[in-house]
């Protein structure tokens, strides 16, 4: 949602000059470029058409682009300034598609160092767009000169281009640091800003260096307001990263900027302060009052910026934002609808339950006039409201369903559906109404992806309502009326009802039988599959093949199947060999949500298939010799720090568990610029039962680089010995070296070591979380052929149920099911349901009954398909 | 307008800009040769290996030359052909002290002469046996023999021994080329 709705009129007018232009004709016209002498006027017109087409999103094939590109190179003959600048633009546009673009390098370097000032800046930008990493060296000298050029346009162009080039050759650009340093003293505001950008980028991985840079610049006063804004951001970032609260000089700097003469800088400073995590009330007050005064500014941009920022922090700084309520009330009628929307939604967030109705009415008056982006803001406010005031759910739900019926894009509709789903999940009272709204919505929903999601939800929630049968009609209607994707989803949803509601089974079977005549393969396949399973009348089959979705990770399944097909074996494919999918933890989910809730931030195109962390590691680990025999990667732990931060050497460990062994990956960073480390390895004192299978040292570890060394350990045969603690020491050979070149002074090094913190292998490392849709059914299924262990504990150190739940989940590494990790307010007893798999494949289900009374008492019941595993779980809790 | 100018205009010569393509292996002295012909104020003080190509202009006997100074580096030689089509003359620079790569020069020359955009045109080719000042430089006769130039029947060609640093031999060569191009233009009614 990056672009604002375009003014329709503007769109119609803007294109008339070039309407009807066609790619093939324009490409043919490019032949004109080959004529001598060049006709500048004609060529400029053709160039404009090409650029127009490219900007309209027209795609050129690589041959077409190359042909046009080479024709364009002939235009360098002409001395016409405008034509030449068009050529630069053309080069930039085509540089990504055409082959051999490097051919214009000399022509561009000539222009960038030549006398014609109008050429120089643009030539630099074009040059950097065609240069690849191998050529960078050749233009280094020119770039350095350009950065310190007297002409500010040239200097800016060189700085910005350098910044772009860091993507492909960070190291080369690092060498421009002296020139950038000189440019930061420029009198020109843009040059100063761009120079700061480059300097920061060169250093950004080195926190200490950034610290120094900021410290130095905050003392000098930057002339450029843009540079000042950037410096504020850098300082704020450093403050944020600082573990405990505020680093005073940086905070003082930001605060001093609240008195800057430029409004941009004042806003940036206020924005930074209100977004800092730890601020005191008095620190906040000044920043908020700046924003407050902007709310009354005659400039719409300032009002917008201020109210948008207040909106973002309304929840976290409720009291402070409330002070602006008067000013926000004035903005409700602002002629700029974006400002009005933000003002109202802010008030909704800060207001009391009684003001909800009035404000909702106010929004209703103009909701049809605002663009989708702002409608999404409204929806988000409603979501927050409904969580805060559960009793208001019917007003809000009605409003949402009204919005659902309006026109709107996918993103907007999806955010409404999401909100309804959240409300349903959070508030059982709202469930039936919400489902009814959604049913009505899919009757007329043009977005396939949304319809599929809602059908899935109906399949999950519908069977557990009081009257499941009423949803069947809505779902079956989809089978009759929709496209194959939606039909397939509808079939899966119906099957859920069949599996869960015995009295509906017969009807469902009839409906599914009809679907087996469908014209689409997928739909037919699903109908056949479900009919078949349902006809067995066996609840445990339903449970594993209909209610619960497969737990394997899909990308891994794809890879395993491909490997299986490539290899020639007669053995059947073993689904157990595929790693199971990783369930994101609650924190990960909330983190992702928080990111997207900062509104109107373009999130860019959504990435396609997200490869999980495990997948990434699995690929890397295959490089370790002999690891293939260990089978597939079961689980990778979180990163464990084995050193204090800011020590000479930083060592982090990631534990990768396989079914019988564990690979310890130690990522080591050398922060000493006068040392080169060699043969870096970690020496472990394994506790009883563990056996070291292999050690892979890191051969070389230069300054500021991260190297990796591995240890492969075999798990003890006895499960009970697998939870253990090891002493660890980092061992290496030191060679002293010259900090500037990084070259060692002598060939002789000496042995040295560095004590690390103890390394633990615990229960959680050996368990993978599994999410269960119907935990109860699985629990009953396990009651027959498995071991059950029960134990009671008193968790004296816990003072609330929430705390206990959080700790248990974290300690056991299991996945909470049926939302049992949420504790209804005011309760003193609670049952937590958990599920997971132990390495090797044993299922684990855990039921923890908690009671609050002077600490927390817990009765823990563990069921597992492996007797030792159940015992291990109960034993390790003690 | 004087009679001569009228005549020149009629022949399409005076306003005529001509394109020449300057090719040859890397380090043979192409850019140095061109630099010699440029006006003093346009002259480059130090010459670096060309990457891709560079367009330079100079005057000779009332004819405005636009020279495509190509890079001779191995990986860019394939790109020469993009510029064959619309050039009026070719300057082929050979480093006469580089005996070892004379065979490479011959290969490149053969490829040039067989190229569809070149083989059917009577386009003049000027060879500079450059770096004649070097101690072990081959004579222009030896180079002509070494490159099998006697077999070029369908195109006017000429070889001059030259020293691009001092300019020796360059003017003689270019005067020949200018003459040829004039004729070429008149005959082809450009
Ligand atoms: N001794 C001597 N050196 C020459 C002569 N001509 C050129 N050079 C030198 O040869 C080197 C290469 O000259 P360039 O003009 O860059 O060669 P080029 O053919 O343009 O090379 P590329 O652009 O890489 O294809 C330079 O160091 C020149 O100074 C000459 O006649 N005699
Ligand atoms: Mg050159």
Automatic annotation (TrEMBL), chain A:
Coatomer gamma subunit appendage Ig-like subdomain domain span: 615-762
Repeat keyword on record: yes
Family, as annotated: Belongs to the COPG family.
Membrane topology value: Peripheral membrane protein
Lineage top rank: taxon: Eukaryota
Summary of the function given for this chain in its UniProt record: The coatomer is a cytosolic protein complex that binds to dilysine motifs and reversibly associates with Golgi non-clathrin-coated vesicles, which further mediate biosynthetic protein transport from the ER, via the Golgi up to the trans Golgi network. Coatomer complex is required for budding from Golgi membranes, and is essential for the retrograde Golgi-to-ER transport of dilysine-tagged proteins.
Domain Coatomer subunit gamma C-terminal: 764-877
Major location (coarse): cytoplasm
Protein name per UniProt: Coatomer subunit gamma
InterPro entries assigned: ARM-like (IPR011989), ARM-type_fold (IPR016024), Clathrin/coatomer_adapt-like_N (IPR002553), Clathrin_app_Ig-like_sf (IPR013041), Coatomer/calthrin_app_sub_C (IPR009028), Coatomer_g_Cpla (IPR032154), Coatomer_gsu (IPR017106), Coatomer_gsu_app_Ig-like_dom (IPR013040)
Self-association state and partner proteins as the record states: Oligomeric complex.
Species of the source: Nicrophorus vespilloides (Boreal carrion beetle)
Intracellular or extracellular location(s): Cytoplasm; Golgi apparatus membrane; Cytoplasmic vesicle, COPI-coated vesicle membrane
Annotated keywords: Cytoplasm, Cytoplasmic vesicle, ER-Golgi transport, Golgi apparatus, Membrane, Protein transport, Repeat, Transport
Residue ranges occupied by any Clathrin/coatomer adaptor adaptin-like N-terminal domain in the UniProt entry: 22-535
UniProtKB/TrEMBL annotation, chain B:
Compartments, record wording: Cytoplasm
KW Coiled coil (keyword) present: no
PROSITE patterns linked: ARF, RAB
Origin: domain of life: Eukaryota
UniProt keyword annotation of GTP-binding present: yes
InterPro entries for this protein: Arl6, P-loop_NTPase, Small_GTP-bd, Small_GTPase_ARF, Small_GTPase_ARF/SAR
SMART domains in alphabetical order: ARF, RAB, SAR
Keywords of this entry: Cytoplasm, GTP-binding, Lipoprotein, Myristate, Nucleotide-binding
Matches recorded under Pfam families: Arf
CDD domains: Arl6
UniProt record similarity statement: Belongs to the small GTPase superfamily. Arf family.
Protein name (database record): ADP-ribosylation factor-like protein 6
């Amino acid at each position: 949602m990056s672009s604002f709705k375009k003014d329709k009129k503007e769109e119609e007018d803007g294109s008339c000059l070039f309407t009807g232009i066609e790619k093939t004709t324009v490409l043919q016209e490019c032949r004109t470029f080959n004529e001598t002498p060049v006709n500048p006027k004609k060529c400029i017109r053709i160039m404009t058409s090409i650029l127009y087409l490219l900007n309209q999103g027209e795609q050129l094939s690589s041959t077409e682009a190359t042909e046009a590109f080479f024709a364009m190179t002939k235009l360098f003959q002409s001395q016409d300034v405008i034509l030449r600048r068009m050529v630069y633009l053309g080069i930039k546009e085509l540089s990504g598609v055409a082959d051999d673009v490097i051919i214009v390098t000399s022509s561009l370097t000539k222009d960038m160092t030549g006398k014609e000032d109008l050429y120089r800046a643009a030539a630099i930008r074009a040059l950097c767009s065609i240069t690849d990493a191998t050529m960078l060296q050749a233009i280094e000298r020119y770039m350095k000169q350009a950065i310190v050029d007297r002409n500010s346009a040239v200097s800016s162009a060189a700085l910005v281009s350098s910044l772009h080039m860091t993507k492909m050759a960070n190291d080369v650009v690092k060498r421009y640091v002296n020139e950038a340093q000189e440019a930061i003293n420029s009198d020109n505001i843009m040059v100063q800003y761009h120079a700061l950008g480059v300097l920061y980028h060169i250093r950004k991985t080195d926190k200490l260096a950034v610290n120094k840079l900021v410290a130095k610049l905050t003392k000098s006063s930057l002339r450029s307001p843009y540079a000042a804004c950037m410096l504020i951001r850098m300082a704020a970032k450093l403050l944020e990263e600082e573990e405990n609260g505020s680093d005073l000089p940086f905070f003082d700097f930001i605060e001093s900027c609240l008195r800057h003469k430029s409004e941009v800088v004042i806003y940036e400073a206020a924005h930074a302060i209100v977004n800092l995590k730890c601020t005191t009330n008095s620190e906040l007050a000044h920043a908020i009052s700046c924003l407050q005064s902007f709310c009354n500014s005659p400039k719409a941009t300032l009002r917008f910026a201020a109210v948008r920022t207040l909106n973002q922090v309304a929840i976290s700084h409720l009291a402070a934002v409330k002070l602006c309520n008067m000013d926000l009330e004035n903005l409700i009628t602002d002629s700029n609808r974006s400002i009005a929307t933000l003002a109202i939604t802010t008030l909704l967030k800060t207001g009391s339950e009684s003001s909800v109705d009035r404000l909702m009415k106010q929004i209703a008056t103009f909701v049809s006039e605002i663009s989708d982006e702002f409608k999404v803001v409204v929806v988000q406010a409603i979501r927050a409201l409904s969580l805060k005031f559960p009793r208001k759910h019917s007003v809000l739900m009605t409003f949402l369903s009204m919005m659902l019926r309006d026109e709107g894009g996918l993103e907007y509709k999806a955010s409404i559906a999401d909100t309804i789903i959240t409300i349903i999940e959070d508030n059982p009272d709202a469930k039936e109404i919400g489902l009814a709204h959604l049913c009505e919505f899919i009757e007329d929903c043009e977005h396939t992806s949304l319809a599929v999601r809602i059908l899935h939800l109906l399949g999950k929630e519908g069977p557990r309502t009081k009257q499941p049968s009423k949803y069947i009609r809505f779902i079956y209607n989809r089978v009759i009326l929709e496209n194959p994707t939606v039909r397939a989803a509808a079939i899966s949803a119906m099957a859920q009802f069949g599996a869960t509601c015995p009295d509906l089974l017969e009807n469902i079977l009839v409906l599914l039988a009809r679907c087996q005549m469908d014209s689409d393969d997928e739909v037919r396949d699903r109908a056949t599959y479900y009919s078949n399973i349902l006809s067995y009348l066996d609840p445990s089959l339903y449970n594993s093949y209909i209610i619960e979705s497969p737990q394997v990770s899909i990308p891994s399944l794809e890879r395993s199947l491909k490997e299986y097909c490539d290899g020639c074996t007669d053995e059947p494919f073993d689904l157990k060999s595929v790693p199971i999918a990783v369930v994101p933890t609650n924190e990960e989910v909330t983190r992702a949500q928080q990111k997207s809730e900062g509104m109107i931030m373009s999130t860019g195109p959504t990435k396609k298939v997200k490869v999980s962390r495990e997948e990434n590691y699995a690929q890397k680990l295959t490089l370790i010799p002999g690891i293939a025999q260990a089978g597939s990667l079961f689980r990778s732990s979180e990163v464990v720090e084995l050193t204090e931060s800011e020590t000479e050497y930083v060592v982090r460990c990631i534990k990768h568990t396989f079914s019988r062994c564990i690979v310890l990956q130690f990522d080591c960073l050398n922060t000493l610029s006068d040392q080169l480390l060699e043969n870096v390895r970690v020496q472990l004192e394994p506790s009883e039962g563990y056996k070291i299978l292999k050690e892979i040292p890191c051969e070389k570890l230069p300054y500021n680089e991260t190297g990796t060394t591995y240890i492969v350990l075999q798990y003890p045969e006895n499960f009970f010995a697998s939870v253990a603690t090891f002493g660890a020491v980092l061992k290496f050979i030191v060679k002293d070296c010259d900090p500037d070149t990084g070259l060692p002074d002598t060939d002789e090094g000496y042995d040295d070591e560095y004590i690390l913190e103890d390394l633990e292998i615990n229960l959680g490392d050996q368990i993978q979380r599994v999410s269960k849709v119907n935990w109860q059914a699985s629990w009953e299924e396990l009651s027959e052929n498995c071991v059950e262990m029960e134990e009671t504990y008193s968790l004296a150190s816990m003072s609330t149920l929430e705390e206990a739940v959080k700790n248990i989940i974290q300690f056991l590494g299991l996945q909470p099911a049926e939302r049992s990790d949420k504790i209804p307010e005011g309760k003193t007893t609670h049952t937590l349901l958990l599920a997971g798999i132990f390495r090797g494949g044993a299922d684990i289900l855990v039921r923890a009954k908690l009671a609050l009374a002077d600490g927390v008492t817990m009765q823990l019941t563990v069921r597992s398909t492996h007797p030792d595993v159940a015992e291990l779980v109960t034993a390790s809790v003690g | 307008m004087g009679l001569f100018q009228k005549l020149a205009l009629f022949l399409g010569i005076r306003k005529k800009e001509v394109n020449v393509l300057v090719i040859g292996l890397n380090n043979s002295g192409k850019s140095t040769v061109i630099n010699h012909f440029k006006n003093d104020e346009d002259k480059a003080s130090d010459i670096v290996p060309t990457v891709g190509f560079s367009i330079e202009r100079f005057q000779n006997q009332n004819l405005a030359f636009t020279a495509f100074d190509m890079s001779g580096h191995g990986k860019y030689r394939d790109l020469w052909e993009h510029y064959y089509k619309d050039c009026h003359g070719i300057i082929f620079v050979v480093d006469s002290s580089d005996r070892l790569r004379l065979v490479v020069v011959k290969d490149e020359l053969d490829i040039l002469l067989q190229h569809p955009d070149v083989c059917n045109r009577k386009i003049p080719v000027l060879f500079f046996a450059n770096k004649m000042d070097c101690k072990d430089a081959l004579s222009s006769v030896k180079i002509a023999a070494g490159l099998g130039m006697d077999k070029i029947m369908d195109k006017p060609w000429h070889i001059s021994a030259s020293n691009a640093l001092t300019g020796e031999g360059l003017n003689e060569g270019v005067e020949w080329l200018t003459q040829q191009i004039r004729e070429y233009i008149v005959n082809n009614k450009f």
